[in-house]
């Protein structure tokens, strides 16, 4: 039995609330159970220096966790002078995931940055960030379209993400912290609305997992991400 009493294929309750940041061009408060992340998309009227003159823009992300997002207070990373390796890895993952479904030529020489700030963490902060960031990005692009700032359709597909793992020998979907901290295998899957795989991150915490177990986890993730995409569609309808 899972600590949350969920069935192996059951996700936590998910909600996507748009327009929660007054000044951002697009925003979303995403909740995966007790994991809450505020995603805000900001538009800059210039591309990164290394892209200037190429006629296309850039989509990137930043990620951070509030000091009391977890059980004990963690020091703000600004006090250390630079983000941790974990933070850098997650924000690069979010950025890659978003760029996989954006036609960068359509946004012109501009940059969209999606800030993902974890308000409360209970496992799956990176997957929640990706899922909510897509909604914030969508609304930013809608904002741009209303002002004739796009050269054409910029958003090619949905993108969402979920964690899977093997907990007490059973493949399960959408791990919370209680499961994540004791799972024998932990994996994150990023997938598009059309079923394409953007990224897979999988780690055996103890004994190696088999190819059959990997395919089982992939099947769970495919079903779960499809549900998240439907929720995204409802949120932006």
From TrEMBL:
Please name the GO terms that the record assigns under molecular function: 3'-5'-RNA exonuclease activity; tRNA binding; tRNA nucleotidyltransferase activity
Report the protein name in the record: Ribonuclease PH
Q: Which species is the source of this protein?
A: Hansschlegelia quercus
Subunit structure comment from the entry: Homohexameric ring arranged as a trimer of dimers.
UniProt-annotated binding residues for phosphate: 86, 124-126
Which family would the database say this protein is a member of? Belongs to the RNase PH family.
Gene3D superfamilies to which the protein is assigned, alphabetical = GHMP Kinase, N-terminal domain
Task: Give one GO biological process term.
Answer: rRNA catabolic process
Kindly state which reaction or reactions the protein catalyses: tRNA(n+1) + phosphate = tRNA(n) + a ribonucleoside 5'-diphosphate
Enumerate the UniProt keywords alphabetically.
Nucleotidyltransferase, RNA-binding, rRNA processing, Transferase, tRNA processing, tRNA-binding
Functionally, this protein is described as follows: Phosphorolytic 3'-5' exoribonuclease that plays an important role in tRNA 3'-end maturation. Removes nucleotide residues following the 3'-CCA terminus of tRNAs; can also add nucleotides to the ends of RNA molecules by using nucleoside diphosphates as substrates, but this may not be physiologically important. Probably plays a role in initiation of 16S rRNA degradation (leading to ribosome degradation) during starvation.
Exoribonuclease phosphorolytic domain segment(s): 11-140, 159-223
PROSITE patterns associated with the record:
RIBONUCLEASE_PH
A Pfam short name: RNase_PH
- Name the top EC class: transferase
InterPro entries, from UniProt?
ExoRNase_PH_dom1 (IPR001247), ExoRNase_PH_dom2 (IPR015847), ExoRNase_PH_dom2_sf (IPR036345), PNPase/RNase_PH_dom_sf (IPR027408), Ribosomal_Su5_D2-typ_SF (IPR020568), RNase_PH (IPR050080), RNase_PH_bac-type (IPR002381), RNase_PH_CS (IPR018336)
Q: What is its EC number?
A: 2.7.7.56
């Amino acid at each position: 039995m899972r600590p949350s009493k969920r069935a192996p294929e059951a996700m936590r309750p998910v909600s996507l609330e748009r327009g929660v940041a007054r000044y951002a061009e697009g925003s979303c408060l995403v909740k995966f159970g007790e994991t809450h992340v505020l995603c805000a998309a900001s538009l800059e009227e210039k591309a990164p220096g290394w892209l200037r003159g190429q006629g296309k823009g850039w989509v990137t992300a930043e990620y951070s966790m509030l000091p009391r997002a977890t059980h004990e207070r963690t020091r703000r990373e600004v006090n250390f002078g630079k983000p941790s390796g974990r933070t850098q890895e997650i924000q690069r993952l979010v950025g890659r995931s978003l760029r996989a479904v954006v036609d960068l030529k359509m946004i012109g020489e501009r940059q969209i940055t999606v800030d993902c700030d974890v308000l409360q963490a209970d496992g799956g902060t990176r997957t929640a960030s990706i899922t909510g960031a897509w909604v914030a990005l969508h609304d930013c692009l809608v904002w741009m379209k209303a002002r004739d700032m796009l050269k054409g359709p910029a958003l090619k597909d949905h993108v969402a993400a979920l964690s899977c793992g093997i907990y007490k020998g059973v493949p399960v979907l959408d791990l919370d912290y209680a499961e994540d901290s004791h799972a024998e295998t932990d994996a994150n899957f990023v997938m598009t609305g059309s079923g394409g795989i953007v990224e897979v991150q999988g780690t055996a915490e103890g004994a190696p997992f088999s190819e059959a177990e990997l395919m089982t986890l992939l099947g769970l993730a495919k079903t779960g991400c499809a549900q998240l995409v439907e929720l995204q569609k409802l949120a932006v309808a």
